[in-house]
Structures are given as C-alpha cells and as structure tokens.
Prior knowledge:
The chain has helices at about 10-30, 50-60, 65-75, 90-95, 110-120, 170-180, 215, 220-230; strands spanning about 35-40, 40-45, 80-85, 100-105, 130, 135, 140-145, 160-170, 185, 205-210, 235-240, 245. By secondary structure, the protein is of the alpha/beta class. Strand 3 (about 80-85), helix 4 (about 90-95) and strand 4 form a beta-alpha-beta unit.
Amino acid sequence: MSASKPTLWQRTLIYSLWHDFSIRWRFKYELPKLKEVTQEGVKLDVSTLSPIMKNNLLEGRYEVQERLLASKCLQPSDRVLEVGGAIGFIGLFCQTRLGITQYTTVEANPNTAELLKRNYSLNGRTPVLWNVALAAQDGKVTLNIGNEFWENSLVAGSGSGKSVEVPAHSLSTLVARLGYEPTTLIIDIEGAEQFVDFRQVPASVKKIIIELHPAFIGFPATYQIIGELLKLGFRVEEETGGTYLFLRP
C-alpha cells in the first residue's frame, strides 16, 4: 500500500520549519565566521560587523539607492565630496566602477574611519579621508555611537548611549580644503543633515545625492532641506527609498 502524499498544508509547514532552521543556522554558525564580502566588485572587510549587516551585504541590500543614483548621474569627470563615508563602499564603487578620480570622503566616527581605510587597502587604494563631522559651523560636536556603524549620528538621543567628541567643519570649510571645485555632493549623515547650512553649497556643485531621515528629524525639517535646495536652483530628479538626487543646470 503506497504512502499518501503530504497535503499542501503539510508541505507548507515543512518548508516553513526548514526555512526557519536555515536562517537560524546561518546567523548562528555561518555569518559569524564570515570575514570578507565582495559587492559590485568591491572587497569589504566584514570581520567586525554584526551578522545582520553581513547578511545585508551578502544579499546586496546595502547602499542600494545611493549606488543606483550614482550610476545614473555620475561621470568619470565628476569631482566628489562624500560626507558620511561609513565603511567606504560608495566611495570605492564610484572610483573603481564609475572611474571617478577626484574623490574626498568625510567620516566622523574614528573607528568607522579605520574600517574604511582597511577596505580601501583591500582594493589596492588609499582614501582621501578626513575624520571630521559636517556641522553648521567649525568647532567640536558630540557624535552618538550606534550599535551598527550606520547608526552613528549627531542627533540627540540616538545611538547606543555611547558618544565621542569629534572635530566639526562647516560645508564651506570642507570645500575650501578640497583643492578642487566639487561638482557632486554625496551626503548620508543619519539625521545630521538638519544641521547643515546648505546655503554654503558652492556654485560648482550640480549634483547632490542625499539620504534624508524624517524618522529622525521630522517631516518639517525634511521639507525645509528640500525647500532650501530648490531655492538654490536644484530640482528633484529622482527619489528612491528616502534617498534623493538633486540636479541643477
């Protein structure tokens, strides 16, 4: 007598249990051992990252919006100032895949800046890196440290309860240090965009890729930033997942 086939409900239950087991195994045993990931041809040291962050990188979910917008609008001739360089992925992507040669990165967290340097070294490059925060004016600010590197923020009450005092530069000071006239700003600073004086954006800048964080700063502050950029002659070319591409003639 042949055994009856499992019902649809039974097959669904078996699949669900197997899927749950696979995920638990992956996060408990496989991901903690992972030391390096390659995304879009960029090698990244993930040895100090959490299993969640490692999984995001493996599945290609990290900095998707910034990467797509950069691919659409940037040319090898662009001169970039990136604020919020994190672990260096976007900077390395723009330089290795898009052919940009004039690229300066600002990263406020000293520990994250060291990881950025390691990732550049993995890819045979040396970053032009400034370990400072972007703020309304020059001085020092308190950076709140998150459990994940992307949670670092100047926004009060954010992070894990740890903080560090870091030097801060205004946008005009950063631009003056560059040694070239930037055509592009890439900004991802986890809510600290509310403290930036966008009136200091130089006339040479025609492209801005910026992630806005209404969950951190509220919608009024978010719309105020958009309004300030519109007044400067920019238009919203595209928005995806909270990341905006602003262009002006």
